[in-house]
Structure formats: C-alpha cells, structure tokens
Amino acid sequence: MFEGLLQPMHLLLILGIALIVFGPKKLPELGRGLGQSIRGFKEAMSETSDSQKTDDK
C-alpha cells in the first residue's frame, strides 16, 4: 500500500506545497521547531529507558 511513498518527486511536491502554504520566511522556523521537538522526544525516551535499567537492577 505504501510502496514508493517517499520518492524524490513526492518530496519535492510536498516541499513546494509547504513553501506555498507557509512562505519562505516561516519554513525555517517550522523546521527548527520540529527538530527541537524530535530531539526532546529522543531525550525523554533515553531517560525513560535509563530509569528502567536502573530499576531492573
């Protein structure tokens, strides 16, 4: 069902639509915010796994 979903042409189309909707000035801010949220999620997941490892000992 999802074969070939993220081909380069599809990614370019998504980027073009994002530029039209958000504009070129807002897009870097959205990317930065998305990166920070992903980084925070990864840190929270690693803290959770670290606390589980210490609880198991």
Give a written overview of the molecule:
With 57 residues, the protein is mainly α. 79% of the residues lie in helices and 0% in strands. It is built from 2 helices and no strands. It has helices spanning 8-22, 27-56. The chain is flat.
Layout of helices and strands:
Layout: H1 8-22, H2 27-56
Describe the structure using short key phrases.
57 residues, 0% strand
Structural class by secondary-structure content: mainly alpha
Measured as a percent range, the helix fraction is over 70%
Weakly predicted, low-confidence segments: none
Order of helices and strands: HH
> Based on CA inertia axes, which overall geometry fits?
flat
Summed up, the helix count is: 2
Amino- and carboxy-terminal Cα gap = 43 Å
- Sheet bearing the most strands, described? none
Strand content: under 5%
- Radius of gyration, in angstroms, nearest whole number: 18 Å
Mean pLDDT: 84
Number of strands: 0
Oligomer: single chain
Concise overview:
The mean pLDDT is 84. The chain has two helices and no strands.
